[in-house]
Design a protein that fits this description.
single chain; alpha+beta; 11 helices; 16 strands
């Protein structure tokens, strides 16, 4: 295990920020006229009151060609949204946690196919799988337990093929990831490791792995090794008091109207629950610096987080032909932390083979397209959001603006 070096810890969210250069779209092979379709698309959603507000960002060839805030940060107070607004990133935390793990992988602390029990002994070397007695009557037929065919590996955690169950009640600021993982490890698996893809809490366990191997909390590791070096001054698990005013209000639905969601984090300070699967908040420009680092092969402005070969490994398909989302997300495989496009035709959204990305539960979304040297970022705060089709429509509107 690594020794904790307190001298390298950084003050949360107080580092000097940085941004990519902003240039005229045509200088990067993007049409300013065609980018107006992005603005028009998002404005239609706002005018229909389907979203309160949105920050959209497009970068190409290492420069920002579109950055815009539209609508409101808070409907009730009519607070206008600005581009430096802070959004709950939810599952857009997962790629950051995955990068942290791969940084330790590069240092030789583990192999991808090592059992997680080697580092987190609360997990059994080979657990049990809960098999429903009647697959078509899962809710009432009960389960039987059988030995798992193999151990849960680190690769399976990163690719959502581990079969972990779900544990509730631990996502409070006063709890720790150690306590969470101890409870999770007691549950039977939902399927034999490596045999299915099912979205779940696995990246929380990856975050705990980072803590154990590095000797630091995940919060400390992110600040010292990722956010500090990249100048991501507005990204953290728990916002300091002076930044809470920039946190965008999250909305749900009441009938066909937006309804403010209450009691949502990150609002508490000094919390200890650092959820690698979904605890961060940040700005669009901060997240762009993370995305551009990956697009550059692991480095940005003289700071290298990963080697080019590690980024190539993360953005390869690691799950073979396993279907995503019960085969409703066709044309994609899954890498080490995000989905990866394998087939443009099947995916039915404009883009390139090799493009990768992910989103969050409040509707945030990003993708990197290495072939086009493009990053797209969408920031909203709405749950649920999928019925709006906003993400693929936004990606189509951005990609059609490429003209070189």
């Amino acid at each position: 295990m690594l020794r904790r070096d307190a001298l390298t810890l950084l003050v949360p969210c107080l580092l000097p920020g940085a941004t990519l250069p902003k240039i005229a779209p045509e200088r990067a092979g993007v049409s300013a006229e065609r980018l107006k379709r992005v603005t028009a698309l998002l404005d239609r959603y706002i005018q229909k009151r389907q979203i309160a507000g949105v920050v959209s960002l497009v970068a190409r060839k290492g420069a920002i060609v579109h950055l815009q805030a539209q609508g409101l940060a808070d409907v009730e107070s009519q607070k206008v949204l600005t581009t430096d607004a802070i959004f709950r990133l939810a599952s857009m935390t997962k790629p950051v946690t995955s990068v942290a793990a791969m940084m330790l992988h590069e240092e030789g602390h583990f192999l991808l196919d090592d059992p997680v029990s080697k580092f987190l002994p609360e997990f059994p070397e080979r657990g049990q799988v809960a098999i429903p007695n009647a697959p078509n009557e899962r809710a009432t037929a009960g389960y039987r337990l059988i030995p798992a065919e193999g151990p849960v590996t680190i690769r399976q955690l990163l690719t959502h093929t581990a079969g972990l169950g779900n544990v509730a009640g631990f996502n409070q600021p006063e709890n720790t990831m150690a306590e969470y993982c101890a409870a999770l490890a007691k549950l039977p698996l939902k399927f034999h490791p490596g045999t299915h893809w099912e979205y779940g809490p696995a990246t929380n366990v990856v975050g705990r792995l980072v803590e154990v191997v590095s000797g630091r909390s995940l919060d400390e590791f992110f600040r010292a090794r990722i956010f500090g070096p990249l100048g991501m001054q507005d990204t953290c698990f728990y916002l300091p008091e002076e930044k809470l005013s920039r946190l965008v209000t999250a909305y749900g639905w009441e009938g066909d109207r937006l309804k403010k969601l209450t009691a949502l984090g990150p609002a508490a300070r000094n919390g200890r629950f650092f959820a690698g699967a979904g605890g961060l908040a940040g700005t669009a420009e901060d997240y762009l610096r993370f995305c551009q680092t990956l697009l550059n092969g692991g480095q940005l402005d003289g700071t290298r987080l990963l080697s080019r070969k590690s980024v190539e490994a993360m953005t390869a398909n690691h799950i073979g032909k396993l279907p995503l989302w019960q085969d409703t997300y066709r044309g994609y495989g899954f890498g080490l932390g995000f989905r990866v496009r394998l087939d443009v035709g099947q995916s039915a959204t404009l883009g390139s083979v090799g493009e990768y990305g992910w989103g969050g539960a409040y509707g945030t979304y990003f993708w990197n397209d290495p072939k086009e040297q493009m990053v797209g970022i969408l920031m909203i705060q709405l749950m649920p959001y999928a019925h709006l089709n906003l993400r693929p429509q936004f990606q189509n509107a951005v990609t059609q603006a490429i003209v070189d």
